[in-house]
Each structure stands twice: as C-alpha cells, then as structure tokens.
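Batch job 17 of 40 flagged for manual review because the log was empty.
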Amino acid sequence: MWAERRRRLDERLLTLKDGLRKPLTLTQRFKKWPGLWKETANALAAKLDWTTRVAEAPRSDQEAAQNRAMLDAAERRDVVGIGQRAFGRRIVMLVVSDLRIDPRVEREARALASAGYRVTVICPEPTQGKHPDLTLDWGLGVEIDFRHWSAASFVTRRPGYFGAALFERAVRYRPFAFHAHDLSTTFAARAAARLTGAHFVADFHEWCSENVHWDAATASHREYSGEWKAELQALERCCLRDASAVITVCDSIADAMSAELGDGRKVEVIRNIPNLATEPTRDYAPLKKQLGIADSKFALLWQGGTGPTRLIEPIIEALAFAPDCTFVIRGPSLDIFGDGYRAVATRAGVGDRLILTPPVPSRDVVSAARGADLGVWTLPKLCRNFTFALPNKIFEYMAAGLPVIVADYPEARRLIEKYGVGLSFDPYDPRSIASAINHMIANKSFRLACADNSIRALDSLSGLNEGRKLADIYDRLPRTT
C-alpha cells in the first residue's frame, strides 16, 4: 500500500508551498468555472500517531535516519533545551515556499541583516532541478542554502510538517535562533532548537489549522477537520507553548490563536508591508505602457497568486457590468489556469478586456504595479484563515500609489476604511464588484483621493517599521555566553 502511494506521489509534479499541480476535473464548489483546479497535497489516510506514521513509511535509509533523529530531538528530555545555549548573531530560517515570489521571507531576512544579524535561509530548490545553479542575492548578511527540491516532499504527506531533511541541514548550524516560516517548518525548527539550545521563533504566515486543503475524494478544497485538524492544532499549541517568540501577519489571527490555542500568550504581529526603500531588479514603465493599454482605458490590476482558491472568476465576470474596465491578471501558474480564465471571459463576452501576464520578482511588484488605475484583492469564504487575511498585495498596491477594492472581510475592510484608500465588495457577486469598479471610474476625485491616501498611509504603515519590530523581537530574546 505504501509503495503504491509513493508511486502515485512520485508521478505528480511537486510545486512548493501550494502542493501538487496536476490538473483535475471540475469541482463541486467551483463548478461554475470548469478547468481551473490543480491537484494539491493529497493526505495519506492512515490513522497513525506521528512517530508511527513516519516510521512505517518506507523511504531511503538516509531519509529514515533523518526522521528518527528529528523525532528523537523533538521528544527526548535530555537535550540542551530551547534558548538554553543561544548566542551569536546567526539566525537560520527554514522555508518551503518559492523564495523568488515570497516577499515576506525576503523582507524579514533583509531586515534582520540590516539590524546586524547573519541570516541563513534553508529552502528546497524551487525549480525542481530545472535550474540547479539558481542563486538569489538578498544583500549583505543573507545567504541562501538551497537543498534538493525533494526536501519539501513532506508537505504532500499528512500531517504536512515532518521536514526531516530541513532538520538534518539545520542542526549543522549553531545559531542564535531558528526561524520557522509557516507551520510546515515548525516541527523541524523546534526539534533543532531543543537539540542545539538555540531559540525557536514560529512565524505563521497563515493560520494553518483554519486553512483549507485539497480533498481528492470530493475533488474540492475543504477545511481541515477531525484528526488532521487536531494534529495541526496540537503543533500550533506546542509552538505557542514552547517558542521563544510567536509571530503572525494580522491582529485577527494573533488574537484568535492566543485565545483559542495559547492560553492568552502574546502573539506578535509583523504585517506584510513592503519596504519602499527596496530597489527593484530593473526599471518598469507604467503598467499601461508595459502591456500596450491605451492611457484612456481604465486598468484594474490583480497581482498575486492564481488558481481556484483565489476567487478571481467573479472579478472577470464583473467586467460584463463594468464596460469601461480592462482587467490585468499578473501572477504565477497562468500556464495552468490561464485557459480557464480566458474561458470565463469568453462566456461573459469580455475576452478582449482580459490580459494575462507572468509574475515579476517579489522585490519588483510595487514598481511593476505603478500606472494601474486600481488594485483588487479577494479570496473565497472557505475558512477563517481566508476571512482573517491581510495579505501582501493590499499593501503593495498602496505602496504603488493605487486605490484598492477588497473583499468585504474584517481585516481588509478595517484597513481601507481606516485609511480611506478604497471600497469593499461582496466577493461572490460580480455586480457588487462591478459597482465598486464603476464607482472608482465615475468618481475621479474620489479615486485620486484614495490614491493620495494610500501614499500618506504608508508614513505610518512602514515596511521599515515592521522590520524594526522584528529585529526588536530578536534583540529582546535572552542571550547566553
């Protein structure tokens, strides 16, 4: 049985963080928009405890040894202990996302380096061997330690956080702290910190147990439930109990995690605000000139991830009720989802006003967005992780001087209302989306005021300030000799 499961997994194309990309058939939840699903991590169904599940899966001798060492470090009592031998200025980050398009990891690494820390980022190579010589330059004080891409394969196996290959690499260092990006790397980082005596910092980009996963049995994204959710919550509780510091992206997630899982333990908030001082990799013309859109046309920009969990389809359908708007989707995976988006546009009769364009490097997103008339953000209402979201792209639009329209969820609505930078809409209603677009088109003075407010808001919503907050968190951690 295990061999067959492994054979099936090996046949699929692993893509970091988002799981597996093999296109699937139509799903019930999004049956309106056929051809858009990709296959994400398919949970193995065995109801086993952590140690048994890892031990029984037949893998290479090397991987089995890595798993035994990680589990031993995670559970033994005769270890140094988290924060008990924490000295020096090195921070080792553990990541499984694609560093080329993960601006939060880059911002945090650069911020810590600017504060005098030496940052090493351990990450599976994101091109799956297509570009084995890939290098990234994040400036002085930051080095990227790429591992073989298969080091991320653990995310495809329930519970999705036994990163033994990351642990094996991490314990070769003796840092001041291990910084785990997302729940998927916290098990390995906590084990490494217990073994070496370094601090352990848990950085939750998302609320994993309140997120969704791909369920092959129903061919849909579903909230975690039952034993799997309990496993994720158990690790989240463990992090809130044991970590030297816990960080997340917004107040709603911080408050809920603290109350529900952390017995009131403080969770720090480092928001996804871009650093305006970051230099892009190249100069960009205004967006309309980049894409050959006439200056007289109104350009709405989506800049970020694509696929069925992004709920972009109602925005495309909204173009039928916003005849003066051209919609630009800039993001990864359009080779997979682009035809589906074009099909939605064709059915809505707006195919000539949809433009698809590939992503730019994370440090370029602000420069590349300038010249659009309006930025848009949305997500489906599938889970609390989505409705609590306060994502990079809203701040990136603001940094580019754009007004913003957002799905009517608490954190996003609170931000745009507080700073007067845009409007909210019902994310499932194309007419509601079109109403927000048309209001921006018809009321130029309001639109320009929102754009001005976006720039002014960044005087207080500073990426540099968020970086300083992160450095302060590290500076407050106890040090040993």
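Reviewer: the log was empty due to a logging misconfiguration, but the result itself is present. The CA atoms of residues 102 and 192 lie 24 Å apart. Unflagging and moving on to job 18.
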